[in-house]
């Protein structure tokens, strides 16, 4: 297992992660652990621990966080946020943490499979449009209950939706993601501690 | 932290609306088209006029939370959809999917509390003449059913005759923290609706557990986290003798219904718990024709339940 080095730690990691300014009260964290107690993922994977993630962000352990497999286990159910006594919006923190991991070429294997749905959403204005056979099934189901064959999304809606993707740089971002290559992870946090893969 | 956590439907919605704008859910209109149709038919029976608009697009929250694109497009799309409702109809926006509800609420909150994001989004959508002003409220249709529970009770013509029904509330409604209808730990307003319909509410141990689909079904750790987690939930439901489960989110419905078969293929189970939308259940009881409820989209067949309630085959 590689040793941790000084440069793995950053003083301003919290600021770097929260670049969209969505979780301004992270430093209020009491480390009470209600988030972890209410987390369905922590219940079956003890190595995933939201309280620990917050503590690591505040102390600035970059490598341990970004390279960790753990940050990709969260379902985003938001029950941590629901029970937090100081209202820390952990899901929005997790979202930004994942963006930062992606920028560093980690976790791409968990995001690339969703990319094709992103591109289809760009095409149709609907998320999770299936392939051709799936579409035929939807047509049959919808016809059988007496509604239009396909959800009504107008040409205008699709054109504007696409323009938003283009003008905010989302399409560029998605294309770049397709080309990025996953970096090997040195360690994971299996079973509550840092272990060698 | 100075706002009330739980409020009554009357405080939440106010007077019973004559007209609402119904937000199209991608999953609700594709995976389970019966859900969308059921919501519309039920509201029609309850005397609420429903308006939908083909110019509305996907809420774009799901792909954002799967890190499929950065927040900017999702913020602009939210501003556009909500501005469209404000400008064309001046109505409140009702969601029938916890996903759409949660993402729109969250993204609208970000827009309204970060002037730069609102400015960015409004600048972008101004090219088509939209401006988001935060005038439309984002409400879930389940809140309207609860407000209209007495009317639903009056309209019941096919009571559930003691059917053991359990609820999956879905996280993205109850996790809103402030101003929702019930407490996130022990919510009971769906159970009150079952009682109004003549059913027996079942409380099982893991009833408040997430469906696992909010992010990740099939994308992140499906085998090691999502499936064992779901099996735990379904085992617990089976133990309590749940005969039917309802959701208020087509996304949760996908996870709970479609995944039962996959779980059994992996050696969990066996399970045979039909999962339908709350609107489909209300529709069934208040006399919406069964063929309009689209139960043929379900993986775990609803036919047995329909037979027991005297509806024949659910086609």
What would your notes on this structure say?
With 197 residues, chain A is mostly helical. Chain A has helices at 13-17, 34-37, 40-44, 50-59, 62-66, 79-83, 90-103, 108-124, 132-144, 155-167, 170-179; strands at residues 187-188, 195-196. Chain A has 2 domains: 6-107 and 183-196, Fumarate Reductase Iron-sulfur Protein, Chain B, domain 2 (Orthogonal Bundle), CATH 1.10.1060; 109-179, no CATH class. A two-stranded antiparallel ribbon of chain A has the order 1-2. In chain A, a hairpin with a 6-residue loop joins strand 1 and strand 2. In chain A, helix 8 crosses helix 11. Chain A is globular and about 60 Å long. By secondary structure, chain B is α/β, with parallel strands linked by helices. Chain B has 2 domains: 14-141, Glutathione S-transferase Yfyf (Class Pi), Chain A, domain 2; 156-308, Rossmann fold (3-Layer(aba) Sandwich). Chain B is 47% helix and 9% strand. In chain B, helix 13 links the parallel strand 7 (244-247) and strand 8. In chain B, helix 3 (33-45) crosses helix 14 (278-285), helix 6 packs across helix 7 and helix 12 crosses helix 13. The radius of gyration of chain B is 19 Å and the shape is globular. Chain B starts with 8 loop residues before the first helix and ends in a 7-residue tail after the last helix. The interface between A and B is large, with 66 and 71 residues.
